[in-house]
């Protein structure tokens, strides 16, 4: 769909219905063509195009290939030693030449992912106001109350298929970054395109600004958001309700709304409130759950046994912790046929007040209650490890350095191969580093983290840490949902995505101790995930794009956006 048509507007021609758009797009002048990031090719405009589109004289004589432009840009990026400068160079490229940006990202995914995504995107959000040059995405603040539908109409694209929206209250593990959380929806959607092949014109990043409680930002002269404390209660709920209705009214039933980095209390409530009326997906609850379940299923190849044979201990009982825990319990129930309540009992969660136990039930938030099992209270993580003897330890606390030497050693003394996942992002918030996990377990740990760590050598052996990040899941998952025209997201689709990801881990990976496939194969991985998710949507009767294509992997591959330049007539 995204490929093949030779057109002055590239793949976006179908979206340019002038009766809808509030302004007209003209390519009469080569000058404006060059300044439109979606159509610009820089020095790669051919002689013929320079003649046909009034570009003569506006460019030096040389004509470069896209490959040579790519090589030049990579040289420029690599010259910056500060990651934030690399991030800024990438944003600059995205805002001047979109196809070249995606060509770089697709071809150099392992090198550039830590720049446009975690960990650097976290720092970018913290400093967003100071580095802000190009507004990206759509900002909806309390000032726009009552006018959200109008604002959606200011966005130039009509065929939006995925929205990633945040209110900035819990950006990665960095807390409330208010309006500056916009870096996250922008980064996530860049991955939708680069990793999942969803066309950029179908992607819309949105930040809802209801204020921030971050005093540092409120005092920052360069802060870009509303200078007020967060709205809560009815004021908050009403704005979100208006937003959700406006999206449906403007883009129809089949736009996927991905909630990202909302604080726990709102995340669970929004998902519960809108999952029966809208096509919604919470990346932090559901995407993270799916990628971690995949890692666990994959690790069983190294650990032996089934999920039911393991005991799980989580540090952190928020969106990620409880989301993962629930998907594990669901998968065990699919395997052993027992009620989910029964299977939850081998999964324990520790929050900031200690082990979640039945005696705390009355004071627990609803999403923690299913995990309040019978046990005496335990305050310290290390004591919980010793008492419960987990085989798998998962950090989703958002707080760095919580897996101390004592904790890792306790895991290593209980298990031949302790599985340790330090999932909090960015790297500064990881519960422990790869080096710590391998060293403190004397090279026996199987380790994965949310943000990337370099391979680590210990006693002459090289360990390759896995990156258990929802970036493996959401791009392919979203593509599958879009391809099928699914009207809802269901847990079975998350399980399908997990299994599709596991199927991409090969013997060769296991031999290196890897439980996830490398990101360099991500488009193939995403096509497989998309196919399995779409197949599940068809099976559940949720798909509206009928009839079901025979070969869903091929359909996914065909759908994928190619960043190669178009020729213009
Ligand atoms: O963005 C990431 O790297 C993963 C994620 O959703 C989070 O940490 O909130
Ligand atoms: Mg997130």
TrEMBL record:
SMART domains: malic, Malic_M. Residues 285-538 form the Malic enzyme NAD-binding domain. InterPro entries: Aminoacid_DH-like_N_sf, Malic_enzyme_CS, Malic_N_dom, Malic_N_dom_sf, Malic_NAD-bd, Malic_OxRdtase, NAD(P)-bd_dom_sf. Keywords: Metal-binding, Oxidoreductase. Its cofactor is Mg(2+); Mn(2+). Pfam families: malic (PF00390), Malic_M (PF03949). The keyword Calcium does not apply. Residues 94-275 form the Malic enzyme N-terminal domain. The keyword Magnesium does not apply. Belongs to the malic enzymes family. This is Malic enzyme. It comes from Hibiscus sabdariffa.
